[in-house]
Design a protein that fits this description.
Length: about 200
């Protein structure tokens, strides 16, 4: 699939105020500083569609973008929250969970993981919750260009081993680099099959 048009639709904090259009949605989520905005901009071919920031955790809203006039791409707040108060953290958790649980249009959730890191408990817990809740999701490893190929595959294999401790089969896995423009075609082809 090729993205020929991508336009901002709406930002809000409540799934009930999301677009009512009966269109499929694919959403992107990850912890602070995982490279979510950069990946969305790379996939859509628009360098300023999702706002990137030197300060992690700037996405505090549910952001909807209309893609090719056919489906919505959704940029969700991170779940590893930047330096925010406990009240704000709880508010963000509710925004995220309500959207994921009560948005029937959600076709797939792309969970972004920093490929430079060993398995993080917060990521494993989040994916476990998705699995238990029956939410269709895929794993996207970001920043694959930031370490050697050997180290990259070692980290990914560690994640797979951890997941196989509780999962029989793994969700689709994608390896990306927004900087080197790698992995986007595979993600877009997958989206093309499910929307």
């Amino acid at each position: 699939m090729t993205i020929t048009s991508a336009e901002f639709v709406i930002s809000n904090t409540d799934f009930r105020r999301c677009p009512q259009a009966d269109m499929p949605e694919v959403a992107f989520i990850g912890r602070s500083n995982v490279g979510k905005s950069s990946l969305i901009n790379y996939l859509t071919g628009k360098k300023d569609l999702a706002k990137t920031s030197s300060k992690p955790g700037k996405t505090l809203l549910i952001n909807h973008f209309l893609i090719n006039g056919k489906f919505h791409l959704v940029d969700l707040p991170g779940y590893g929250f930047a330096k925010v108060s406990k009240t704000q953290r709880e508010k963000l958790r509710k925004i995220i969970e309500d959207y994921i649980m009560f948005r029937p249009q959600l076709t797939n959730l792309f969970v972004l993981l920093d490929s430079r890191l060993e398995p993080q408990q917060i990521d494993l817990d989040f994916m476990e919750w998705l699995g238990q809740s029956g939410i269709p999701f895929s794993i996207v490893f970001t920043k694959s260009d930031k370490q050697t190929k050997g180290k990259l595959m070692q980290n990914i294999d560690q994640y797979k081993s951890k997941l196989y401790e509780t999962w029989e089969t793994l969700p689709p896995i994608f390896i990306t680099s927004s900087e080197k423009k790698e992995g986007g075609t595979e993600i877009l082809d997958y989206i093309g099959k499910i929307v």
